[in-house]
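WARN no homologs supplied; continuing
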Amino acid sequence: RRVHGGLTLDIIRTMFRLRLQLPLLLRPGLAVVPTMAAHAPCRLYKPRFFSSRLLESSDSILQQLDGTGSETSGEVVYAKDHIVRVSDLGAASVGSIVALQNGLRGLVLNLEPNAVGLSLLSTPKTQISVGTKAELLLNERLTVRVPTDMCGVMFDGLGQISDSKSKTTEGVNKTLETVHSPGVTERVPVSTVMYSGCGFIDLLSPIGRGQRIAFVGPRKSGKRDLALKIINAQRTANRAAKSEGDVVICMYVMLSQSLPAVEKLKRLLDIPGSKDTVLVASSVTDSITSQYMAPITAVRLASHLRDQGRHVLMVFDEFGAHSAAAKDVFGPLHRPSPVNSLYATLLDHAANMKAGGSLTAISIVDNEMVDQSTAQALSEQAAEAVKANSDHLLAFDAQLMRKGISPAVDFLSQLYISSSYTSPLLREVSRGLKVQLRRYRMGQTRQQDLANLGLEIEEWEVEDSHNGEIAELLLRNETDTPVNHLIVARAVSVLALEDVLPNRHSAKIFKQELLNYFKSNQADLYSQLCAALSVGASKMQPSETSQLLLQLDDVLEHFESTWV
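OK structure emitted
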């Protein structure tokens, strides 16, 4: 019972009541042993291998199995920081709530032979003394209040509304220990693209609703900036949504961050007051239990929205700090940190549902922490756990970061699942863009090799990689609509820009005038391109795609011939 919790109790209780084919105690001195025949009657005999003490205690065993005679009170035998051990409490199981005499409460996380290990839900103001009385709350579990409208609300790690200015509405209580991920029959393949606002992601590494994406890399490499850009892109698209079902609710989960970072993010996300954003934040000043429970609480809130048919984008920032909090919780309890199984369970909630609704998860992990070796090991463990349970990996490169490239991702080397959920027009344009980028990267490598050997660089090698450099300039760092990214990417693929764009400044002017030309002189074609890239337009016929590309190429060539 101590090891397996209530499961073993249920099995033994069933064995007693249904007379399964195992030696069962009925009353002192008698036992039932079924024969091997399926329908042969059971025979009673006086057992010789049961001790008299065990037979005499059969009545007390039955009472414990029925919930009577269990120990629900005890006293503190060990207390240090946030960890408390309480003696007895035989009726406790993992996830039970224990109330101490001084008003504090703890969450049962470990069952020992003669005691239970608690992690306090709040930080104690004074040291808890040994001998403090404790009481098990039998009918109480850790729950979170899910408001009817949670947008614009800030929650702490335990699901309590932590901002007094946030609006509070009616809702329902959900237990945190019964967050079941959807089954295979409840899911459908990813079929809808989620535009990020970043040209390179939408063209080279598109995100689909219901996917699990991992941002892994060193600190200050643009991971959080990219996640906020994706959130802002969803909020911009929400303003033009035709119905509530098209709105993507964004949930940002801050894990063990500093208070200034939390306050800064509140201002960026317009909390409170936002109509499509939720913030779940646990700072380093909160209790260690609150820091550990924060992602579990967030998944409970997000899965509630998903099951209601809503689309949710969830950002975990960041799992490296959370793994350190998990180590602080389970280390003093002499239990291994469960981050591998926990992250697999949390990320498994990301899904595209058959009944409608979806949950998309973006996990941020800092995998380089050079200040402390222990923290670095925990962060690397979190990175491996997240990568093993993600569909889509963006590895941020420190070398690109030092060159000032943001986001510092080599998109050509990234692996992701099939982008069949994107528009065929976008897939066709991305093929030409990849060719230009590969030429640019190969040209850079060759130029570096020739320079190391002291050889001159041919002029054609510089011109051949010029379009790739323009693509890096206009698509990587620029935040824009998908149709504008598509027009620029196609121009980079089909035009000889080395003749008309001698420098970076002229490239930005070229982009601005090109887009203005489309909007003013080619309004019909611009509208057709917008419709082809709209959410859910992944079933265009090949003939329609070819026709649109021909029209687009003609307009681009005409603009190139007239642009000065």
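The chain has 18 helices and 21 strands.
OK
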